[in-house]
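Two entries, shown back to back:
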Amino acid sequence: MKIVDPFLASAITKEPKLEKTIYELLLKLNSREHLIDFLGTPAWVLSQLYEQSVNNNWEQGSVLGHPNCERKLIDSALNLDSGDLLHGLVHNPKLTSSDLRKIMASKDEMAASWAKFYLFKDKPEAEPFILSELSKQTEDRDFILSHFIAKSELTSRVTSELIKNHLHETASKYSSGETIGDVLTQNPHLSPETRVELHLLGFTRKNEKFHEERQYPSTFLFVTKMNNLEIEDYLLEKFISVGHPCGLLFSSQSNEELEFNEINLFQLINSEFLHRALWRELVGYDGFSLTFRNGYRVSDFFIEHKTLGKEFQESDFEEGWACGGVLPGYIERKWVEQDIYIPADRAASIFTNQGDSFIEVTEYYELFSEMYPAALAFFSDEYAGEELLNKYGVTLNESASPVIEAAALEQADQEDLDIDISLNLNFSESLSWNNLPIEKKIQICEFLIFGLDCENQKLKKDAEHFLGCIALHPKTPTPIVDKLMKLNNQLISATLSRHST
């Protein structure tokens, strides 16, 4: 679902000539997801992006799915009948019935199914299709069945059939374990009576979280500017004037238009401005330091501290990402440095795990120079190494480990690596909690206190974490400290108490 960046839209409404400047800048910065995923992108920008993506059919397909895409590009794609192009195009809400029927007749089954969905949704044709699919075995059902059940206006006959005979089934083999009953509760067209019936049968609609968990193009421009890239201040000040939350840390300009809501709080936290303003100044204070957790499908960048880092340290290795303030570690950031290495014992295992013996492992290599680190690894092996050393009269000196480690780094998977993280002292940081006017500090604090009541649990935890950072920061003004004391929040109170120990 494409959404509107309200700050970009408001700035352009107030000053239309900004549109060309902003979108030319986004094109120059190659910010493709911010152009494709948002509704305001003009047709001329999408056409340029389509041309720039000539070697990427998937990206061209995404452009074709945008409602502002030029008609001539749509007609061209329909004639090409390319699956990659149709996968994006089929979601364009401005396609005609004729367009959808043409896609239905294409050779690409997925695009054809989506075309059927958009063509039949809320129409009489939906009923026979749904009933026909329900009569099939789960593995033979079209994946689009679950979308009809969740989104289409269902007839009483279909609803009755679903409730009577199919609630505990999965819609298709692609339904990820969700039952038809779970999917049906998501349908916005159900009558109150049907919802009550489903509830009594154990199927209740889950609370919907806000879906705009995407960085706005305007937020991207703030982040780009604060990474020391050339963007004119006046442009971002236009966003601040219409209430952009990143303005809280960007300048001394007041942010009177700021609205406290979850979407705006997400933009502020997603910008990482709070991380940079608070974490950088807290490193070295009261044992506060940066840390990195790396492993199989795990890449978390966070902090160590007796109170603020306690939940993360005690969390399951794979669940640390859900703690407040934790950042994805796989993103490169100019304000920190990573020291990536592999421990000696793990480096050796990269080679010794390739086979049961050195002879078997040599089959992987054609050159002696490639084989050499593997040989050293076998000689240094904790279990077999001593026997090999004695057998061949070999002695390893201290230069063996660096050779093994350097070669292992080239072959290792991401989860094999250890990562130490530290502040980049050469990065010119302008974000600072210490230097913010007290009025802005109070506004940020009030915004984060609002966040403690968010329905979105990650946002709620993020807000709590940063209030804790504010509580720990030695330059937090007394009025804010007093406000934090009155919250009676366990984490914040525990952090405040460290000032008196």
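entry 2 starts here
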Amino acid sequence: MSSQILLSGGNKYYSYSGEVFGDVSVPATIQLIFIPNTGLRDSMVVVHPFYGDPASRSNEQQLGTKVKLNDVTIFNSQRAADNNYGSVENTINLFIPRQSKLEIISLNTSGNNTQLRGVTVIGYYL
């Protein structure tokens, strides 16, 4: 899990989870990014989820991404397995009000709990 890191100019921030793997004990959700306070300015945020090859390509076994802002789900997607392995899911663009809590969660499945997943976030202060 990663938190917010300010870039040297002070007008952008980033966060990345790195590659996250699981095993048979992985829960239904995995917190990838948690930023408890996005700062004193509003921001535009770009979220880039990515996935590795799945153990199962069944449509019932796809991984997904959930984005929560101040404990409210604002994005929730589990795409068909054919569309989310070895690639980046569609980029998610968000407006984030100042001093918000941002959380990005991987939605897990029992068939693909060992599948690689991760996310990169970059925020641009307005």
